Amino acid sequence: MTNKRTADRLEPGTVIRAALERLDEKGLEALSPRAVAARLGVRMNTVLWHVKTKARMLELMADAVLGEVPLDDLPSAPAERARELARRVRRALLPTATAPHSSSAPTSPNPTPRASRRRSSPRSWRPG
């Protein structure tokens, strides 16, 4: 299945991009090294060679998303700096959190404003 030339050219960044695309399209439940391998047209072991485990793949995916957060032009006051950085991190995470598949996120039977905020916060995106 895996062409040796394809496997030799495959890089961790390519694997992570494919994993992020799979996450956006199908959701966290459908994300696995096997699914990423199928997307790339390689064997699962080839994907695992680059990311080692599913947990590590999720860590690398989070790093890739957070690595896109701009760190320039932050306010100098510590409190405002923290708020602005939190806004930027939230914006980086929102495309995944608001995808159609995210409706399967856990919900409370009687959501309160506090519970609603907690579900929509960046901390609510955790590897399963």
TrEMBL record:
Which keywords label this protein? DNA-binding
Q: Does the keyword DNA-binding apply?
A: yes
Question: Which InterPro entries does this chain map to?
Answer: Homeodomain-like_sf, HTH_TetR
* Stretches for region Disordered: 91-128
Q: Which PROSITE patterns match?
A: HTH_TETR_2
Q: Which domain of life is it from?
A: Bacteria
- Domain HTH tetR-type residues, every copy: 9-69
The protein's matches in SUPFAM superfamilies, at most eight in alphabetical order, are given as:
Homeodomain-like
The cross-references to Pfam families, in alphabetical order and at most eight, read:
TetR_N
DNA-binding: is it a keyword of this entry?
A: yes
Residue ranges, compositional bias (Low complexity): 92-107
Q: Give GO MF terms, alphabetically.
A: DNA binding
The entry's DNA-binding region feature spans 32-51
Report what the protein is called: HTH tetR-type domain-containing protein
Lineage in the entry? Bacteria, Bacillati, Actinomycetota, Actinomycetes, Kitasatosporales
